[in-house]
């Protein structure tokens, strides 16, 4: 058996589901999962489908037929993934180690369906963790003067290692529009607040000052507008007057870890689709 | 426009989704929502579909065709509901008033898509609430001696008022196998614990004694096995050593209210399917 | 037995707890609950204490001694409440009925330790609910022209009915600085977002547009700065791409109900203290 | 400054708080935190107090006075900890690696205030993780025949390394009454269900079979009665019909990690007191 995942979005039209499911039947596939969503306001149709095919299936042919018939008829945007091919993920870090430990721990425990060919950092502090987990670590310092040069080096590495998506595990540098455009909806950030509350720097301090009773963390795709990209996952934890800013930070670390790990998992399993700065997440 | 909801379950087979969605296209319907689930272990297929049809559509004809073609070909169990026809719900209560106030408040605020033709109680205590909300109240005392007679009277009322489903809003009597068989998967109970922990009487006292850090409530369909029916919805709330049994009860009331209201809503909107003592809940 | 609640805050100093607890011992009281908090940043001490006294205790004398000794020595702000005297709460409403039904349901179920002498509204829509629960309802229309006159009438009623605190159960008018200063930290609002995200009008629409995965509700004391007062309680619920704005609103209603009810309970049981636009909430 | 933590429990009596806080004042300490609890049913008083003392304070003398006066007068059970002395924790593991990775990651990120002198396992599978984090690993196989011998070896190591408490990070062997009595309320287990539901083996399979909508994890002290010890912490996560047993297990891993880490933190920071098979947890 071979398994595939098919993601589709297009203008909503009558008969799409029937057409797609009939197509899968015709090419001898068995649908094991199907979920779809219609954004009524925008009139857009989204579908995620998993199917099983015999080992002999010629997917190049299947994709060509799909391209020339359905995809054309319905003007679809679509992606076709063969399961078993793990996406290749680059980790960007700075000095905070909690998300890095968590991701590498889960990776080692085989909970994340990814390859991690490299870690890139603007500081050398976390190199020992990369060594501990045996992942190549590239220290590329970023200063005002070296920003362009540094980014050039980063892009070369991403290309060389055939990276599919990037995870900013508390990476403390702004990503440039250039890199964002090259990895559109493929750079995942973790922000340590319940966005849109407290964007930017020091959200735990702001939350403490405001006297909130709940703090949160948000994982989102990076866009040119700071902390305004499509939200993939959020979660929260209760706080009270008993908690200091230091407590907020400690409780927040737990949230950041969990929320980022969930976002990575969802992205790696091709369960996220982006449209109009929002995500459709098929659980 | 007329809206319909179609619920289907049957043995999982190739091509079901294609067949159903093609059928809807053929009878000039537009699918506005479709969710499906395959229970891989049991090899059962479940589908919930919402569609829009023109006002001229002859649903009797549509249903007949469906019956004679797809339903037959795939050996389907199926239900077809025309939206706008509200299910008729009977409330059974005893002496606790919090769920009753909550349900009648939501009903009055038009949050529940039901009719409530009557309230039945084995005590007279809550009659004034029924009066306050202008719902007919039937006091049918139940003692060992009058149990059979009482149930007979209950069944007559349920029949007379054309009741579709029953909600036990903290009704403190065991429902007999006879009534259960007449309203299979149509009697909703709220149990004040996180089932399967603490079935039976006095769950808050047991939870307190055990020193749990979280208490819960569970809404389920009533079956012959006490507190063992298919679970529709559960929720929890944190407790601590600070809380007394009385606090558990008070916090629990909030849970009971919310969980029961959600279960009623899900059932009334035909989002729940039962199979092998479990529920498929299409949110 | 008579029960009392004592709330204290003052500059943090050595020996306060010893002094207060010794005092209670000396006047023959038994401490049944004590919680305290030190705001290290602001160097402020907060205490909440519950105690039992014999029926013969002369509380006027006790309070006088406390005033002239400890309260003076430590420059305390303090409040002394005799349990059993229920605070008197005014409800302000407009057209939304879900919070009103919920509060009156809980009040009737004796879950809220308050008196509700009156409901004030700028519309007549909810009068029938007030009638249903037998609470006096005052319709005071507010237009640009009648704003001053309306407020004058409101203040007269609040005074006449000896109101201790006001609950805005989705009251759709701005409260004036005058009323706020007369009822400082005594006007409780429910805002239908997870503040500080989405203050102001139409938060559910904004949340939908931003594509958040969690929505919230916030209960806070009203201050002159809109939606910026001290937060008493917050809670959240998950949403997904499946949910429309209408779903957000429906799920939000459940949150608003629950969060407001909890805030009312906490305030009525004198568990909330305000300092520097934040609350200390002793659960 | 030196910081201390004082834990007390005894029969509830008038004047305890006054006596203790006066004592701290008298020995020149400053109370920075105090929380207390009265179990009204059992008539037991619990207190947790943190204080600051000058560097010159002679704690041996302070403890002696406390012992001979207050502790005697009130028949107290008490513990006095000087902050900065980290408790020494032994990890017991078998084959599951997710909790081990998580604990060692947090330990390395300096989130846990403990020493970890050794890891003991009945299998050799996780040795490489211990090596990776540079913690001594002792492989002590346990079979029916070697059980006594193995335990003897375990106890020798615990003694040799001056272990204060033991964490069973998914250790798949029953702890004997002998070891339990030597480390009473000092062995922390993580059970992968929402106890008391689903004790014993394969709780995720049982939860799946029962069709629950929420699964949980529970951390508790080990007692002779399997999965019946005092509960320290619990948490839950939602599941639905979409989730397979494998999904339950994966979601559960996240819960197990988090709940166990919280329990370790609470225990290491001396925030947990045990009484009558329940815990008082001072957050």
UniProtKB/TrEMBL annotation, chains A, B, C, D:
One of its GO terms (molecular function) is formyltetrahydrofolate deformylase activity. The keyword Hydrolase applies. It comes from the Bacteria. It catalyses: (6R)-10-formyltetrahydrofolate + H2O = (6S)-5,6,7,8-tetrahydrofolate + formate + H(+). InterPro entries: ACT-like_dom_sf, ACT_dom, Formyl-FH4-Hydrolase_C, Formyl_transf_N, Formyl_transf_N_sf, PurU, PurU_ACT. The keyword Glycoprotein does not apply. Residues 5-84 form the ACT domain. Its EC number is 3.5.1.10. PROSITE patterns: ACT. NCBIfam families: PRK06027.1, PurU. This is Formyltetrahydrofolate deformylase. It comes from Flavobacterium segetis. The lineage of its organism: Bacteria, Pseudomonadati, Bacteroidota, Flavobacteriia, Flavobacteriales.
